Amino acid sequence: MNTQPSRSIEQLVEGVLTSDGAGVKLTRVLTGKLQRRLDPFLMLDAFGSDDPDEYIAGFPDHPHRGFETVTYMLAGKMRHKDSAGHEGLLQNGGVQWMTAGRGVIHSEIPEQEEGVMEGFQLWLNLPATQKMKPAWYRDFPTEAIPEYTSANGVTVRVIAGQSNGVAGVITRDTTEPIYLDVHLPAGANFQTDIPVTHNAFIYVYRGTVAIGETQVDSRRMGILSNDADSVALTATSDARLILVAGCPLKEPIVQYGPFVMNTQEEIHQALDDYRNGRFI
Ligand code: CO
Fold this sequence. Notes:
Blueprint: E1 9-14, E2 16-20, E3 24-30, E4 41-49, E5 59-64, E6 67-75, E7 77-82, E8 87-91, E9 95-99, E10 104-110, E11 117-125, E12 136-140, E13 147-149, E14 155-160, E15 162-163, E16 166-167, E17 178-184, E18 189-193, E19 199-206, E20 209-211, E21 214-216, E22 220-224, E23 230-235, E24 239-246, E25 254-256, E26 259-261, H1 264-275
Antiparallel strand pairs: 1-22, 2-3, 3-4, 4-11, 5-10, 6-9, 6-11, 7-8, 7-10, 9-12, 13-14, 14-17, 15-16, 17-24, 18-23, 19-22, 19-24, 20-21, 20-23, 25-26
Cobalt (II) ion (CO) is lined by residues 59, 62, 64, 69, 106.
């Protein structure tokens, strides 16, 4: 029995429809104005379409510096190539974790001409001391993602951090991210610990759930209050959601497109390094 008080929903957020890359339609759920509230997370994009015109052009070569990108593919096939020589095919249920560090140029191009392409890209900030570390990249196919199913039929895929004693494929010091994909049958409860220091949110991508008195519908983000060390929720219909939490860095955030540093000077340096071919 859970006797801990649960975090509650502090704010509901509806994403903004936009396009990025060479014209990929997506919903930007975590936008710039939430970067302080949800520190260390900088961005969350949700993409999902069965219309190839909305995804086929993909994301041709573009740079990143100063943070990490986490792509979680629910359905579809996307090929990644980068300037550090990494290449991988990201597909159904797989995760790609890329630490841009001091700089990487990469492309993400769909390897399908029809069917559904659905998933998320999350940007996780790096602390000032790690922004210029070498780029790093790993692909985790779906079978590599640890999963558990509770007695009431809730299945939890643990991408990062841990949940109810099950550790994910990725751990990070400093930001200590937790990234779960939770599938609930209607009526089921789910509870997991989140350190009280962590900023946290859920994003519901199927069905509806309730936290306390607040219902969170499909395609809504619920920002969780920072007043308890766990969260408990109930599915009001068959539901799927991601739960994301991390320890805030509390450092200045200066973003210019795909570069996220601590000062304007560092942004100018990033642009200069990129234009002069110093991104590897
Ligand atoms: Co990118």
